Amino acid sequence: MPVSVEISGLLERRLRRLVDLGLYSSVSEAVRDAVRALFERLDLRALALELYTVREASLGYVVEFSGETFEGIIDYMLSRGVPPVIGALNPVDIGVLGGPVLLDPLAVHVIYKSYLADMALKLNDSGLKFYAPHVAAPQVQVLEAIRARRGLNSRFFIEYVEVNVGEEESYGRILVTPLERALVDYARSEGLTLLSDDVRVRSYALRYGVKTLSSLSIAETYITMFGKPPNIEDALMSLKAIPLIIPREVEERWLGITR
Question: pTM for the complete prediction?
């Protein structure tokens, strides 16, 4: 949504002089340049951390605000002693996937940064459909390229859907991005399970009656269908390195299951 700014008096005259001198093509361009300079001066990561800790913003929200990647903002948060609340707080956040699922950007990040991608490939071969918003395609392409360079099994298994992303609004106490809100709306209208590792996004989705689970459900579904994978210890380590919260009882059950 465009923002209107009323400028008058001496400030307006000075801006018009800048245009007269040819430094800017219009007053609007001069104002945009001033706003860019403002954001360059601010410590956006520190402000994003405040949004996360004080305003209960989703991790996606602070990534969007700060201009960082998920990995970059998580590293910054850890350096400030504030681990992100992502993963599953209790076993009910993890379930067996019985139908198509919709991935939010954080779930995409978690899957490709862990051994969940290998499990998702096999589940996809067995008929489980994974969907993501079309705007996530560049993110997936970069993550696929990283896997290929590391010599890992790399094959696109995500199908894309168009979601109606509206303007940013206030959605109550929890701050979510317009895309996260659109994914909740799409999952509700299409009867899909939303996979998100952001506890706050899941809380927001549940308010609207949307079934939502952690992407750890991919491992739960894989183990239910095929038994414990031989690299389950490595898989758990890759998830904890993100770092994802995994309930102790779930971890112990996964490690103790025999093939």
Answer: 0.86
